Amino acid sequence: MKKNSIYWLFTLVVLAMSSCDNYLDINTNPNSATGASAQLVLPQAIVSSAGLSSAYNNYGAHFGGYMANAGGFSGFGNLLNYNLVTGDYNGLWVSTYDNLEDFKYVIDQTEGVEGLGYFNATAKIMTAMNYARLVDAFGNVPYTEALKGNEGRTPKYDDAATIYQDLVAKLDAAIAAIDAAKFPLALNSSSDPLFAGNMTSWKQYANTLKLRLLIRMSGVSALSSFVTTKFAAMDKTLGFLSTDAIVNPGYTKQDGKQNPTWNTWGYTVAGALANSSRIPTQFAFGFYKGQKLTDNGRGSVIYKNFTSTATPTPVNQLGNESNAPTIITNYSTWYTGTFSSASSISNALGVLKGPSMGQPLMLAAESHFLQAEARLKGYLAGDFAASFDQGITQSFTYLYKDVTNVVGAGKTVAADVATYKADNAASYLVNIGLATTPEQRLEAIITQKYIAVNMINSEEGWNEFRRTTYPKTNPAGNGYTNIASNKSNSTRADKLPTRILYPSSEQSYNSANFKTVNQFADLIFWDPN
Length: 529
What we know:
Radius of gyration: 22 Å
Number of strands: 8
Strand order of the largest sheet: 1-5
Helix content: 40-55%
Distance between the termini: 50 Å
Strand content: under 5%
Largest sheet: 2 strands, antiparallel
Order of helices and strands: HHHEHHHEEHHHEHEHHEEEHHHHHH
Number of helices: 18
């Protein structure tokens, strides 16, 4: 099936689910569901998860030090001083639970049905991924009583650490279910816009999600026995993601079905600049331009005018409104292609490759950095340095790929990685063999992960910063060394928040269980700081 034709399939899904959308909506009055096959709902749900990846990236980019305010705009308000209010991030909560309802529908329709085991297992893997997103952003969330329609209109909030442990068990079960499926109906590029029916990739994705959960729990002393036991039982022969997990149902500019990140930070269908109020932070930019590290290879494909001295890339510290630079005319700062006119926008490399680019759920680079940390801590056998180096290589590889997911002409990953290491010959953040302590090695791994997910899966950089305090920040420093907003009202030493607040929709519809939390004091369970 041609890429674009999947949207015809999605049109059928929308028609079939027009009343089902309300029925599957948590904390709203359910209507009677109309019939829709699991085979139709699964691809729509996976594409919705891809759209959510863009939304979580936006949230992580603001809090995790990747994105700042451009000049000439006002109204940033709570974003600049971190004086968050209930309702600031309603969309993440509501949309994620909506997406979870779709996957639950697939699971309910396929549970125990011979021939539909692959649909059931993949929906369970995506469910685990989405619940982990919620926990990482909000902490304790509805889980055991969630997604029950009228029977669970006011679900209790489950302990976040307990949810994590159950997600690990569910991922194990999903992997086993794929192996045990009898006469399974195969997935393909139409029903599976993530791995096109490659069930080995699905199992490796589940294994890598489990690895992420276990690594995040590894610093919690009360969970040390659980983590050690689960690592010992992990199927080491299955392996982990070695290629990027990218959703692409046939994104295209022609029919208005653009990639969600392109649509947010690139250009509209009409060719207008999608957003001109945000530019990169000095903190993130400093990892490329020499203030902290030198990275001409990745910097030149991520940032517009990276090498220009006449009109350099505009960067800012979040919160600085007095002399904040504006964008380069007609350009998103993260788009390095050529804008000729609204109807002539060439493809590019880097973060914004074009309207038909795929949407990453997880990068192979992150997979290798997770393996590096697991090997550093002794949970996995093998050389942590080799995994670290492979993570850097995979980061270059993804950023050097064009809109067709092929490394662009004239780009040589191996040579540019070697140049990167030479340009930072004295830094253990790039050459991990120079690190002399476990903490320095961990710092190198997390710093490189932070660099790799820049404006792709920025929420993972934010999560890992909160868990490890890396990359290092100096609250008394300038924009290149201080990750926080210069208008921060945080009472913490790092001048950052620890979390976002629960949504106003919960305050309205689930007041008995709604939690009032402090964004500067209340921690996600894996955050020791």
